[in-house]
Structures are given as structure tokens and as C-alpha cells.
Amino acid sequence: MKFVDEAKIYVKAGDGGKGCVSFRREKYVPKGGPDGGDGGKGGDVVVVGKKDISTLADFKYRRHYKAENGRPGSNRNKKGRDGKDIFINLPLGTLIYDTRFDEPIYDLIKDGDTFIVAKGGKGGRGNARFVTPVHRAPLEYEEGEKGEEKVLFLNLKLISDIGIIGLPNAGKSTLISRLTNAKPKIGNYPFTTLTPTLGVLNEEDLNIVISDIPGIVEGASQGTGLGLTFLKHIERSHSLIILMDITSPTLYNDYLMLINELKAFNEDILNKKKTVVFNKIDLVDDETCKKWTQVFSEKDIYTLKVSALKGEGIEPLKRCLKDMARFN
Ligand SMILES: Nc1nc2c(ncn2[C@@H]2O[C@H](COP(=O)(O)OP(=O)(O)OP(=O)(O)O)[C@@H](O)[C@H]2O)c(=O)[nH]1
Ligand SMILES: [Mg+2]
Predict the structure, then answer these.
(1) Closest CA to 314 of 304, 302, 301, 325
(2) CA-CA distance, 115 to 104, in Å (whole number)?
(3) Is the pLDDT of residue 22 over 90?
(4) Quick one: which of 36, 115, 166, 255 could link to 106 by a disulfide (CB 3.0–4.6 Å)?
(5) How many angstroms separate the CA atoms of 290 and 263, rounded?
(6) Residues with beta carbon < 5 A to ion ligand 2?
(7) For 144, left (φ over 0), alpha (ψ -120 to 50), or beta?
């Protein structure tokens, strides 16, 4: 299914049912008392967080969500039936905005989380409720309250502990498939990954969620390549793996470029804990590895070395990720 991470939908809660005006008719009782029942409540529109949904793709096709209206009250003090609620299932990490306001009204984080995005209207009162000692035969009743209606903007920002970022072809997808249960597409060409992927690394008592996003190229902040829109999916990660292809002759400049693009997107991202990892060490000699380690350490950047393909260095990396997760 196509990955979609934004959508706009219209939601309308049910209107309350109208109150009833009625009088009891009983044999031998010339004038029965009022017995008009209240209207039922309108159904709510409720959003539900679902861990098995990963995209907002459904909302490209269906944009209107209406809950049922409450039924009118009837005679013999019978209350109208309440309208049924309607449930909209959303992926975890969906921020929900009422388009009239800037701040989100809710952030769906946990599986099974629910939130009422539009409240159903209250049912109107029937005439039986207007009786007073001096007002025995009221004709008053209330209309039901209108249900809320809103236009919602849904903005999915995936929730992961650790995000993997790097240039295209650095081996990000190979690494996530080595560390977790994720099985993303891997290819020897740039932009193999077109949509973010989540995977879970189970280590002792920890479940560390890792995300793999499309590669970032120079000028991404200006829209080159796939741009930077996918970076929003690592905004919530507490730490980052910056994965570098050690076969690049311009490794340190690649790193600076990446940092610049991140900065252009959102400076806060640079405040996250970062681990720089050199990948593809199986393709270079020890000299090259030492040289780059030195270049980075002179800038106070500590680096780990792995071969995501061959599995070398993966255990130390896992230990490091575990510590990052534990002390975040
Ligand atoms: N020799 C070697 N090749 C690797 C290693 N890691 C990844 N590769 C290869 O590098 C190529 C790119 O790997 P991917 O995992 O698709 O890279 P990516 O960073 O996800 O690329 P994009 O999704 O396009 O940004 C593939 O041909 C991998 O087999 C490694 O440690 N050693
Ligand atoms: Mg990839």
C-alpha cells in the first residue's frame, strides 16, 4: 500500500434527537399527564490508535466520517435511542489538528488509545420534563443539540527510539534488516527506500524501535532528491545513527553536508544523541579505516565501525544502542 503521511478529513458527530410532546391517554382519565420522552444523544466521532496500521493511505479515498443522529423521544416517557459512535482507526504517531487552530488537539501514541474528535449533540428534553406544580400540561420541548463538525488535518510522525540517517546507498536498510525484524528493500542504487520503515530490536528487557528513512542528498532542504519531508519521521526519535559509507573518498565532507541539511530542516534535530557509524568496512583496508577514525576523532566525534552486510561490528553497535535506549 502506498505510504501517505498527511490527510485532511471532515468529521461530523450525530445531532441529538428532539424531545417529544405527548400526553398520556388512559381509559377513564380525561386528561392524562405529559409523557413526552427525551431525545437520544448523537453519536461521537472517535479516533483509535492502531499499531497494525502504518499509513494514512485510506484517507485518500474516504474523507467524510459522520456518526449517527440520536432518535427523537416518544410517548410514555420513552427516551430516543442514542446515535452510534463512529470509530476511525489511525496509525500510532498521528497528530490530529482541528484546521482552525495551530496546535494539535491530540497525539495518538499508544495502541488502543481513543479520543473523541467530535462530540455528539445532547438529546432535547421532552415535555414531561417541563412539568411544575403550576404548569401541569406543558407543550415545551427541546430540539436536540447539533453534533460538532470539524475539518481535521492528520499528520503522521512515526514514533521510534532511534532513527537511521545517511546518504543514499550508505546501507541504512541493510543495517535495519540486520538489527531488527524489518525487511525493507535493499538495492545497489540511490533511493531504494522511498518510504520510512520501522523495525524492533529486542535486547534483553528492551524493545528498541528503529526507523529507516530515505537517503538525504546535498540540497535536500531545497527539495533535491526526495527532499527532507521524511525527516519529520525522526523528529520524535531520542537518538540517531548517522550511517556513513566508508568507501566514500569524501567521508568527512559527506558528514558535514548531512549535518547541514539536518540543520536546515530543524536545528533541534542536532540536539539529539548521535552515533556516527562507518559502514562497509569489509570493502576497505585497515589503513583507510584508521585514517577516517582519526579525522573524525580530531573533531571529537567518536565512531563505530560495522559491515551491515557481513555482520561485523554489529554486537558492539547493539550494546551502544541499548545504552542509548536505557539512558534516554
Ligand atoms: N560490501 C558491503 N555492501 C553493503 C554493506 N551495507 C550495505 N551494502 C550494499 O550497499 C547497497 C545499498 O544498501 P541499502 O541498504 O539499500 O542502502 P540505503 O542506505 O538503504 O540506500 P537508500 O535507501 O537508497 O538511501 C546494497 O547493494 C547493499 O548490499 C556493507 O556493509 N558492505
Ligand atoms: Mg534504504
Answers:
(1) 304
(2) 13
(3) yes
(4) 115
(5) 28
(6) 172-173, 192-193
(7) beta
- Catalogue all structural domains in the chain, each as residue range(s) with its CATH number: 1-156 (2.70.210.12), 162-326 (3.40.50.300)
Question: Among all chains, which residue has been given the C-alpha cell 518510504?
Answer: 195
The arithmetic mean of pLDDT across residues 79-88, rounded, is: 98
Q: How confident is the model at residue 28 (pLDDT cuts 50, 70, 90)?
A: low
Rounded to whole angstroms, the Cα distance separating 257 from 275 reads 16
Residue type, 260: N
Tens-place pLDDT, residues 170-218? 999 999 999 999 999 999 988 888 889 999 999 888 899 999 999 998 8
C-alpha cell at 44: 461521537
- Does 31 score more than 80 pLDDT? no
Atom of ligand 1 nearest to the CA of 177: 15
**Confidence label for 227 from pLDDT (cuts 50, 70 and 90):** confident
Q: Ligand 1 center to residue 52 CA distance, Å?
A: 27
Is residue 101's pLDDT more than 90? yes
d(CA 128, CA 130): 6
Asked if 64 contacts 8 with a C-beta cutoff of 8 angstroms, the reply is no
Q: pLDDT value at position 30?
A: 63
Rg, C-alpha atoms of the chain: 29
**φ, ψ at 117 (rounded to 5°):** -90, -25
> Which burial class, exposed, middle or buried, applies to 152 when counting CB atoms under 10 A from its CB (0-12, 13-18, 19+)?
buried
H helical segments located in the chain: 172-179, 251-265, 286-298, 314-326
pTM: 0.85
Q: Is the CB of 174 under 6 A from ligand 1?
A: yes
Which ligand 1 atom sits closest to the C-alpha of 279? 31
Considering only CA atoms, which residue is closest to atom 12 of ligand 1? 169
CA nearest neighbour of 236 among 326, 176, 166, 160: 160
The closest alpha carbon to 122, from 11, 10, 38, 12, belongs to 38
